[in-house]
Amino acid sequence: MRPVFAVIELVSVCLVLQMGCSNSHPAREANTPSIVGVWEMTAVRLGPHSELPKVALVNKKDIYTRDGHYHDTAPESTRQTDKRLRSYKVEGDVLTLYRPDGERGRSARVKFLSPTVIELHADDGTIVEFKRISDDPEVIPAVEEKVVWPHSEPMPQPPRP
Fold first, then answer.
1. Is residue 159, in this structure, part of any structural domain at all?
2. pTM for the full predicted model
3. How far is CA 2 from CA 5, 7, 115, in A?
4. CA 40 to CA 91: how far, in whole Å?
């Protein structure tokens, strides 16, 4: 898989992980935030073993539905433009994305920083952050396009254990 697509897929996996914590998840506790809704990618921190993408990454939006599907769309779009039917599954804090053909895609660990901000953590150390912009997957707000990677200023790296 080419590095750019791997990073983009990781971003989608991260969003899907959030959705796995949705209201429809049987093991969901009452105080666990829901992944269902529309999420805007706000930051990407490449891990020490990540390959640098050959293109800039913009603040795409991921859309998670209650029935376990997800889509992505451009920042300025107010509707689902991705016609590929993809799904996700969350087990514990691990989100796994599935391709349109049902083949297992990437997995990442989901960390809710708040009910409206999540991070997806990949095995290579890459962290992708998303901000909730709508609780309803049918209501897709337009946002101004901006580059989230590379950054004009270095992103702070989390402390090493």
1. no
2. 0.75
3. 6, 9, 33
4. 23
